[in-house]
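Still learning. Show one?

>
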Amino acid sequence: MDSCDRRIRAYKNGKTLDECKATAESLNPGFKNQIDQNGKILWSEILETVNYDELIYKFTLKFLRRDGYDIGNYKIPEVKPFNH
């Protein structure tokens, strides 16, 4: 049985999974700055910034959550710092 090689499988715009992760990681400092300045960033703003690339969008939210941000939910579609 054949299996997919994650290094060569192309997603939107011909990027591999690892390239999508790297792109999401590179965009996160800008999103963090915007959250720190404005107190939050909307999911729609992130989606627009990543040019509606769903995979990069999901990785961006995942990495923001990993870095200690509250990524909200479908009722509150925004990312903000956790209130300690």
About this structure: The CA atoms of residues 7 and 18 lie 7 Å apart. The chain has three helices and three strands. The mean pLDDT is 87.
